[in-house]
Amino acid sequence: MIIVLKQGVSKEEEEQVRSILREEGCLIREMSTGDETVIGAVGEVSRDIRVFEQLPGVAKVMPVSQPYKLVSREMHPEDTVVQIGDVELGGPRIVVIAGPCAIENREQAMTIAREVKSAGAVLFRGGAFKPRTSPYSFQGLGEEGLKILAQVREETGLRIATEMTSPNQVDLMIKYVDVVQIGARNMQNFELLRSAGRIGKPVLLKRGLSATIEEWLMSAEYILSEGNEQVILCERGIRTFEPYTRNTLDLSAIPIIKNLTHLPVVIDPSHATGLREKVSPMARAAIAAGADGLMIEVHHDPSKALSDGPQSLYPEQFGQLMRDLYVIAPVVGKQLDFGYLDKATAAPILPSSRIGSQRRAVFAGEMQAFAHKAAMQFFGSGINIDSVSSFRTVYKEVKEGNSDFGVIPLENSLTGSIHENYDLLLEYDVRIVGEITLRIVHALIGHPETKFEDIKRVISHPQALEQCRDFLENQQGWELVAARDTATAVRRVKEEGNPGDVAIAAREAADLFELSILKEGIETNARNYTRFAVIAAHALDNGPKKKSSLVYATSNKPGSLFDTLKIFSENGINLVKLESRPIHGKPWEYMFYVDLEADLESDELQGVMEELSENAEFLKILGCY
Ligand code: PEP
Ligand code: MN
Prior knowledge:
Layout: E1 2-5, H1 11-23, E2 27-31, E3 38-42, H2 49-53, E4 58-62, E5 82-84, E6 87-89, E7 95-99, H3 106-119, E8 123-125, H4 143-156, E9 159-163, H5 170-176, E10 179-182, H6 190-199, E11 203-206, H7 213-225, E12 231-235, H8 253-260, E13 265-267, H9 269-273, H10 276-288, E14 293-297, H11 315-328, H12 340-346, E15 360-364, H13 370-379, E16 384-388, H14 391-399, E17 405-412, E18 416-417, H15 419-427, E19 431-439, E20 443-446, E21 457-460, H16 462-467, H17 469-473, E22 479-482, H18 486-496, E23 501-505, H19 507-512, E24 516-520, E25 529-536, E26 548-553, H20 560-570, E27 575-583, E28 586-596, H21 606-615, E29 618-624
Parallel strand pairs: 7-8, 7-14, 8-9, 9-10, 10-11, 11-12, 12-13, 13-14, 15-16, 15-17, 21-22, 21-23
Antiparallel strand pairs: 1-3, 1-4, 2-3, 5-6, 17-18, 17-25, 19-25, 20-23, 20-24, 26-28, 26-29, 27-28
The structure holds phosphoenolpyruvate (PEP) and manganese (II) ion (MN).
């Protein structure tokens, strides 16, 4: 049951509730729900529920309706984010676990690990103890396999997920592994579940071959009841009458799981389909359906694989899939981050003038404005994110060393560039060190009692009003009011308390200010994306760079812009953006802002840079990232 305590409950009253629960033999869990004190209690209680309701300091008592308790959303309304080294599974960044079915030898594991890492996987998988249908099939290398996995982690930085098949492997798991996998065949091996729960490392729990979702969640409950909340659910296909695929992938489990539990869910399309060519379509569908991650089998030479060759992707196919996911993820409000692991290790930590050594990023606007969302998606939770009052302040904070990073919007797919930021990039000596694209879905947000007919004023950022123009033009007599950013608009609606006022902003801003959504998806074109740049005072040494941004001016003679563009073309460099901005104080003269798909500061492209400098009157690299 869930016990909500009254505001201002005394320590003694709270202790009395806990002591009765302990007497009843309940498991007691603190619950995170804003400012209220809420206690979750699991176990059969002999006392009537009304006894608890009448205790001093208790506001209300709610029984948990599901048979699984710790796993249920009722007990834990927020999503659980499982932390595996620098990787957060369950947040806005898609986590891809990839590797062979089984570890066969060091060479094989290392080759595949390098391939999947370079394509963007952040965890490595591979079985050392293989539960095989036939006792005559390859059973895995055992501890030898775990040692190879540990070497893979050492050399690549990828954390390791591998299957535990017996409680007597606990010590080995503690020694070598980062994520303990419980296989489909063992989903209801309750001794094994309990031992996995006691290891204290994240557990990936596969759905049984013919388990219902409820049975699967009950198995997860075993792990949580041992005090381990770091559980990842993995759907890997269930047995149906359909023989064409190895199993039938139950993608509908994703929204069901998201509703019933706070635990993250990943999809394993490899074991689900058993057929290589079916893996990528199902993986794409899983991300579109809201999965937090994927587990995918990859092998560099599948025809010689000792297990599951026919369902293993070739590294090139895996790379292509990752590129597809990179495009799909923002559509459903997530990101596939190719620099995930590099970012965590290479980001600068400013001198210790600030409190603690936590890194800091700033953005302009109110909390839950789109720039805030971009910062959260780019960095995850390992950083302090603060709001400042203007774009200029973002640059100043970064330049003066008060913030490691700044997040600024550069352009929107419907309304074009945010010119102020292009000018500021030129004015301040900062570097672009990353970029992130967010899909912008606008909601009409008002007071809970506001009805559509009551609306008189719509408050939002001018760009947001512009992006919703078709919707707004169809309404009669609404006054449009500009605000500094979308979340500020929501704050105004909240604070001014006028039922005729609504704001246009992201759904998250409505949640933050506890307002209601009257309508969602009101942007004129659903392909509404904003690209943000992440800036720092200096370049980062964080692995391979795929893109460069630069700005230059050419002389005012015929063909001079063409001469510079020719350099890119002749060197096979793809130009992805070209924009001109007037030079302040020089009417009719222009600066050209260019984005390229190449690392212009790499040694190989030094010649290109030299040629470009000769042809440009002014040249500045804004960043390679
Ligand atoms: C595996 O992932 O290696 C595996 C054996 O999968 P499952 O337990 O889903 O069959
Ligand atoms: Mn396999």
